[in-house]
Amino acid sequence: xxxxxxxxxxxxxxxxxxxxxxxxxxxxxxxxxxxxxxxxxxxxxxxxxxxxxxxxxxxxxxxxxxxxxxxxxxxxxxxxxxxxxxxxxxxxxxxxxxxxxxxxxxxxxxxxxxxxxxxxxxxxxxxxxxxxxxxxxxxxxxxxxxxxxxxxxxxxxxxxxxxxxxxxxxxxxxxxxxxxxxxxxxxxxxxxxxxxxxxxxxxxxxxxxxxxxxxxxxxxxxxxxxxxxxxxxxxxxxxxxxxxxxxxxxxxxxxxxxxxxxxxxxxxxxxxxxxxxxxxxxxxxxxxxxxxxxxxxxxxxxxxxxxxxxxxxxxxxxxxxxxxxxxxxxxxxxxxxxxxxxxxxxxxxxxxxxxxxxxxxxxxxxxxxxxxxxxxxxxxxxxxxxxxxxxxxxxxxxxxxxxxxxxxxxxxxxxxxxxxxxxxxxxxxxxxxxxxxxxxxxxxxxxxxxxxxxxxxxxxxxxxxxxxxxxxxxxxxxxxxxxxxxxxxxxxxxxxxxxxxxxxxxxxxxxxxxxxxxxxxxxxxxxxxxxxxxxxxxxxxxxxxxxxxxxxxxxxxxxxxxxxxxxxxxxxxxxxxxxxxxxxxxxxxxxxxxxxxxxxxxxxxxxxxxxxxxxxxxxxxxxxxxxxxxxxxxxxxxxxxxxxxxxxxxxxxxxxxxxxxxxxxxxxxxxxxxxxxxxxxxxxxxxxxxxxxxxxxxxxxxxxxxxxxxxxxxxxxxxxxxxxxxxxxxxxxxxxxxxxxxxxxxxxxxxxxxxx
Length: 756
Fold this sequence. Notes:
By secondary structure, this protein is of the alpha/beta class. It has a 6-stranded mixed beta sheet with strand order 3-4-2-1-5-6, with helices on both faces. A 6-stranded mixed beta sheet has the order 11-10-7-8-9-12, with helices on both faces.
């Protein structure tokens, strides 16, 4: 066994090898020392030959998930080595091999995953001024790729927040790995990969082989070589870590960053989109305000939408139509929510089905969820002649595209219902997973086992009567099997045909030929039951897995229904209105409110306000007032309403017209950067300069207290210069909200026609 272990370990030198030995996963040598230290368990040793004892540490197999979670969270790569043959049936050494390598980007275990956030594995390749980026959520199969300017790469990496990023192996780390404005570890764990995996022909071949196709043309990436190289590297890595066919990926979704609003790290943080407060808590973030989704899939989709607002007017109107559909009908909204609450995480369950690690109870949850799909589809149907009071097109026409995706899958539901017991055990093999009536062979084996057990149970009473020993009992243990136990005070009554097997302090244990005969029947039946049930369960999972593509489409549709219903519920509860969207560039909001701040105040306490930003005579608003007067809240409010409109959400206002914005810039608050030795003033100036260099006429700029990081007169001069530059530079022309405590700046409204 030592040679077997070393041979396997040689193939995975950078991973902790969990080596299956019966009911335990063991580690040896340096892995054992690391495992013992990290998991705070006892380090022991094991004899591995003459005069050789090696360090050893292990955990029960049933507890693997909790230990695996802790190892991954500490940044370790873990190779799981399983027994591939039955130890009882093996004449020699049990065959073993690694079935999965678990890394931060390839986890499938629920304990390691945030239900409402994707866990992305990314890959990056750069060439000159271009970069290729691909990312996959192994737990759901979602797979995307893009080719983009290299200077936009950090922004996309920040958006997807990959748990692990693959890069070609080189001596120097990528420049984007430690951006100045990134939070520590913001790009996740960086894994170096053989550059061969990123070579174009190798990457193309990996993709073609994985999907079993002849061309990538259908994916729309034939002319995007860097996107192909990044995507192919991911497929190569998954083949290494997941043993090839265990991961079923959705069709590669190729996208362009030009179709989405750009949000950098500063903007995400300053607008508190995902985290809020000094503790970076989800509470009081915009996400927490908007997320009333009932499914994990809907929660993940809404989160992705929040990080990627749209620039396509047609798609935005389609989303708004869908929200309107649920907004207009409270009964439909409530019924849909109740149905959605019955649907588990279809996408991640199917990921575990395809990886052969799905639990029986997860299959039952899958059945329940799929059985609810026809009800959800019915809620999307509309009686003839229905129309909404909103003045938009009929609801039925609006959501026909989504209803068509909610395809019932009765074959999968019926299969699971017929095959899996209503109260299954944790894993197949003990006879309690496969439902009675599904397999005549298994039913016969279970009947034989039960009859033999009943006979053995009856033998106890029979032997008591035969011997006159009222305390005689029949027991079982794994070492001796079934036995008859007699206390020492009754040894004189033991019949001659009893064969002594074990002596205890207060009793003796015996066997009789008849008992061993039925024991053999029980144990043989148990082995057969285990083998047959596991085989049946594998086959059922295989049949369910054949519907992966169909279930993935249903899961995607459910996620969209959930997100739309959530937006509608939030809108109704908080008095939101449908925004009017156009390409004109103006932003006009009447009686607008901050969507998060109003949640923490008493109802009606928030004072609404109005704003008008145009592309010509009212491009810049200079906002002054005393501290705590609400300047910062107001300018953030405008940015959030604009962003919400471009998610396809209703907005907190009485009326809102939003000209689509390509990017929101924010320069808010005072902070230094100790990691680079930059002062508060230097950080402020660098961020302001970046805005002035990157803003476009379609951008929205939020500037709060520019110039506060230096002396009063210098600060006033800087603030004035920034406003003048924003106003006079024809290349910019961006809409700007400028909050300041320098009251003198209001004079600019009389000298600069675009300032209000």
